[in-house]
Amino acid sequence: MKKSLLLLSAILLLLGVLTGCGQQAAKPQEQTIQNQAQKQEETLKTTYPLTIIDDTGTKVTITKEPTRIISLIPSHTETLFALGLEGKVVAVTKYDNYPHDVQKKVEYVFQEGLNPNIEQIVKLNPELILLGSHNKEMTDKIRELKIPVLQFNPQSLDAVYQTIEKVGLVTNTQQQAKEVVSKMKEKQKSINEKLATLKPEEKVRVFVAVSPDLYTPGKGTFMDELVMEAGGINIVEDQGWIKYNEEKIISKNPQVILTTYGYYDKNAVANIMKKEGWQNIDAIKNKRVVDLDSDIVNRPGPRIIDGLESIAKALYPDLMK
Question: For 235-278, what is each residue's pLDDT tens digit?
Fold first, then answer.
């Protein structure tokens, strides 16, 4: 009996030792994973002071993590909120409408984004101001106040990604910026995959009207890139933004016409459809005139991929199902 008890005790002791060894062996691995995660988090933390170059080539030094930010263009506001910085945005413009309650969440709403009241800016005591393509005179006035001002005006999808990452760097939200850009790229990839079977001869000719007087984006514009990325062919071969000739539109015979001004002209599509002399245009004959949400196709921010998707759906509804 004693021998049996001694044998049982030995077995239990051995099992205890083995279990302990197993637990101890797991700890270094767990510790390594924790260390890696901690190191990654630390590498994504911004160190101040930080000097960054904006889209005008200006070097701007941010001395500390900004806690009071003014955004004077809707795309930057959308970026800041996507990065979880709504508690640090103190002012936007009257044109900011996304998130939908954005104007209620800030201390002040500027009635004029391109030429804001300088005295009001001073009262708000901002630590960072984000601009788009603002006039140099106004920007210089703000810089004279020793307030950090960054101008970002991305003109391509890649530039949008870079801008979001730069805003993340400046505001110490690099991890959030990385995640936002990753989701955008995933969606872009999904759109590209749906259009992958599209043959060159199947690509449709597109005309984009951003106003009733046929103001349109030509080569080298952001909208032109979106149309191409969505598998379309922009009929406008001129560079930049121009007012296009009606005779050229008729002669180039677009298969799809996109408008972006339905938010202020509810009859945008109807008026295009009944334009005199346009009845033989393919887009008119086949009723392929589509009004797009101007905000998501024109704002170079986190929702621009939604804009790309809306264009792709307008051009190739069957492929984008």
Answer: 999 999 999 999 999 999 999 999 999 999 999 999 999 999 99
Query: What's the rounded mean pLDDT across residues 164-187?
Result: 99
**Concatenated DSSP letters of 160-216:** HHHHHHHHHHHTT-HHHHHHHHHHHHHHHHHHHHHTTT--GGGPPEEEEESSTT-EE
Sign (positive or negative) of CA dihedral 117, 119, 124, 125: positive
With 0.70 as the threshold, say if the pTM is over it: yes
Going from the N-terminus, what domains does the chain have, and what CATH number goes with each?
A: 50-184 (3.40.50.1980), 195-315 (3.40.50.1980)
Q: What stretches of 63-166 adopt beta strand conformation (E)? A: 69-71, 89-93, 108-110, 128-131, 149-151
Coil, strand or helix: which one is 41? helix
Measured distance CA(191)–CA(271) in Å, rounded: 31
**Beta strand 59-62 pairing with 69-71:** unpaired
Candidates 193, 155, 163; CA nearest to 309 is 193
